[in-house]
Design a protein that fits this description.
By secondary structure, the chain is an alpha/beta fold. It has 18 helices and 27 strands.
Length: 655
């Protein structure tokens, strides 16, 4: 009998208690799914926008949705928000399904250029750069982790000459957005309780793994209840932009409450292609493509570019704002000669080493008894064969197995279970390597955890191949052991890279993706820091009772074939591994740098106004002069909040 074949069953003809109960259950599940897919919570698409607005905001992502919503709080102002994508899909609502959206129509699906140092184990040596293409932007496709960075990040911005951007000055904007739901933080002076963005403890996470991680942190004196509070150093179970098991993107937090304001218009499926300037270099409108038609719309007051660290520099350069020599090469008339696209910074992490472990009830483990610190993979089936099996299944078959259906039932019936959270990503840590600033609390490595259950190849393929793009050799090395054991990856993340990249135009065609050159690991100090991060991870897992003995964990010592020429465990070996098993954490920033007039690399001033022109601002992650020490969604939302206030303050005299 097929999945949809009900045979002679007619549900409507049965009125006994069992039939009523089961019919109501089906209706409940269908209603729950419909709620997830309800696009009416978002502003409707304006098919025929007005010819002129007070403000045009380009990009509805982590910052743009905030800016548009906050500006529309002024009823006298008319706001147009321009978004290249549409409404978020159902998968966006379900936290655990984030990787299923990569390389789909809601993802820009960028690729970095072939790297000489990092990403060597990725197909084509080209790191995947997913960027959200929908309302909410990357806040609708990201891992939702709520991490603000370090106080010294923002004090550093201020020290560079950016007045008003010190930690004490931006803290109020973090709090303004936030509605913290985590009980032990409700009375904290570091958190807000009545903002539109719900921040709460991540949903269900794998046990006993996460509890063992936190127990190991306590062994080492590194437990921290709130890495967004007094100090960042230590390990914690993270908060996230989640409410009742569903994602809270900036589209949901900021645009949904404003969707019925008559002064806020949202133009979806519209790609901004050019900023229009008058003879005085004043930004007066934009050109955009919608339904294959090129159109224009004007702004009376200002245009705000919030398209993100990739699309913002692309749009600026297409409009004549950028490095003169590059624009001339592209035969684009230069309006303002600025270092747009330079200063590209991103977080890189390393998926190594792999650790096999067992649950206390597994026959292979006797909790409390140290078995061995090192072990072999145990892999017999190469990922090339496993991948071929998955490729022969259509999506319906892939997601119809009993385990997936059980998780789906739990989620639809109660918004709980595996799909309601981010798995082992719930645990996170910040540590100092020997290269960290000895002056105080300024960790230089962050840890993201991945746990793969024995025999569960599906999530490994979604993460390793669909999202990251690892080649088969890398997949065998990282996830091969799940054939006969559970696997834990404690990925060392470089918080403040010394390697700086650049974004350039590929052509004058706005439909063509820009050239992304992250320049990963070009500065050897970055490699050295990640090697120290690996050494800490080894001690954290195999050297603590909570994980080493409690989970019978051991490090897989089968060498990565591409690095087998080096002695396993040596610094040279780990340096090779860092180059091969590294990938982006999807945190690009800095390509429209904020700085004082004395900084030749600055693109915007501390009011976020673009230099050399008027009535144009950039408000998104592009303006960060240096990358925040942690996941960048929360800092970008903060920039949106502060940027909106800067606009309100500058026009307050005319109101």
């Amino acid at each position: 009998m097929g999945i949809l074949d009900t045979g002679t069953c007619s549900l409507s003809s049965h009125t006994d208690a069992g039939s009523i109960i089961f019919t109501q259950l089906v209706k409940t599940l269908m209603t729950s799914q419909c709620i997830l897919a309800d696009s009416s919570i978002y502003p409707r698409d304006v098919r025929d926008p007005n010819r002129e607005y007070d403000f045009i905001v380009v990009g509805s992502g982590s910052a743009g949705a905030v800016v548009a919503s906050r500006l529309s709080e002024v009823p006298e102002w008319d706001i147009l928000l321009v978004e290249a994508g549409g409404d978020p899909p159902v998968a966006s609502e379900v936290p655990f399904l984030l990787f299923t959206m990569h390389n789909t129509e809601v993802d820009w699906a960028y690729r970095a250029v072939t790297q000489k140092n990092g990403c060597q184990g990725v197909m084509g040596k080209q790191c995947h750069w997913p960027r959200g293409k929908m309302l909410g932007g990357s806040s609708s496709i990201n891992g939702m982790l709520y991490v603000r960075g370090n106080k010294k990040d923002y004090d550093g911005w201020a020290a560079l000459g950016n007045e008003g951007w010190s930690y004490d000055e931006v803290l109020k904007y973090f709090k303004k957005s936030e509605s913290i739901k985590t009980p032990d933080k409700l009375n904290s002076s570091y958190h807000g309780v009545d903002g539109p963005m719900t921040v709460s403890r991540l949903g269900d996470y794998p046990e006993p793994e996460v509890s063992s991680i936190m127990a190991a942190a306590r062994e080492l004196g590194l437990e921290n209840k709130d890495i967004n509070g007094e100090e960042q150093l230590g390990f914690t179970i993270l908060d996230a932009t989640i409410e009742n098991g569903q994602r809270v993107s900036t589209a949901k937090a900021f645009l949904s409450p404003a969707k019925d304001r008559p002064n806020l218009h949202v133009l979806k499926g519209a790609l901004a292609t050019k900023i229009i300037f008058d003879e005085d270099k004043r930004a007066v409108g934009i050109e955009y493509i919608k339904d294959k038609e090129t159109l224009r719309v004007r702004a009376r007051k200002e245009i705000v570019i919030s398209a993100g660290a990739v699309n913002t520099p692309q749009l600026l350069m297409l409009s004549g704002i950028g490095p003169a020599e590059h624009l001339e090469e592209m035969t684009i008339p230069v309006i303002s000669n600025l270092q747009v696209g330079h200063n590209l910074q991103d977080h890189l992490f390393t998926f190594a080493p792999s650790f096999k472990f067992y649950h206390p009830e597994d026959k292979e483990c006797n909790p409390g008894t140290k078995l061995h610190k090192e072990c072999h993979s145990g892999q017999t089936i190469p990922y090339s064969a496993i991948l071929e099996q998955f490729r022969q299944l259509d999506k319906t078959a892939q997601y119809s197995n009993p385990t997936v259906q059980r998780h789906a039932f739990e989620y639809l019936s109660s918004r709980s279970g595996l799909l309601s959270g981010m798995g082992s990503l719930a645990a996170n840590g910040f540590v100092n390597t020997k290269y960290a600033d000895p002056a105080g609390d300024y960790p230089d490595v962050q840890y993201h955890f991945w746990v793969s259950q024995r025999g569960d190849f599906g999530p490994a393929i979604e993460l390793g191949i669909q999202a990251v793009g690892f080649n088969v050799e890398s997949m065998d090395q990282i996830f091969g052991p799940i054939e006969d054991s559970h696997v834990m990856i404690m990925a060392s993340t470089l918080l403040r890279p010394k390697s700086i990249g650049r974004i350039k135009l590929r052509s004058q065609d706005p439909m063509e993706a820009p050239i992304i050159e992250p320049n990963y690991l070009s500065d050897h100090r970055d490699i050295n820091t990640l090697v120290e991060g690996i050494k800490f991870a080894i001690n954290f897992t195999t050297g603590t009772k909570a994980i080493g003995e409690g989970l019978c964990a051991c490090m897989v010592i089968d060498p990565l074939p591409s690095c087998a020429h080096e002695t396993f465990g040596s610094d040279e070996y780990w340096q090779c591994v860092v180059r091969h098993l590294s990938s982006t954490v999807y945190h690009p920033v800095g390509t429209a740098k904020m700085g004082p007039s004395t900084d030749p690399g600055s693109v915007v001033d501390d009011q976020l106004r673009v230099r050399g022109v008027s009535s144009l601002r950039v408000i998104d992650a592009s303006v960060m002069p240096t990358i925040a020490s942690g996941n960048t969604n929360a800092p970008t939302i903060m920039i949106g909040e502060k940027g909106a206030d800067l606009i309100k303050e500058s026009w307050s005299k005319e109101m």
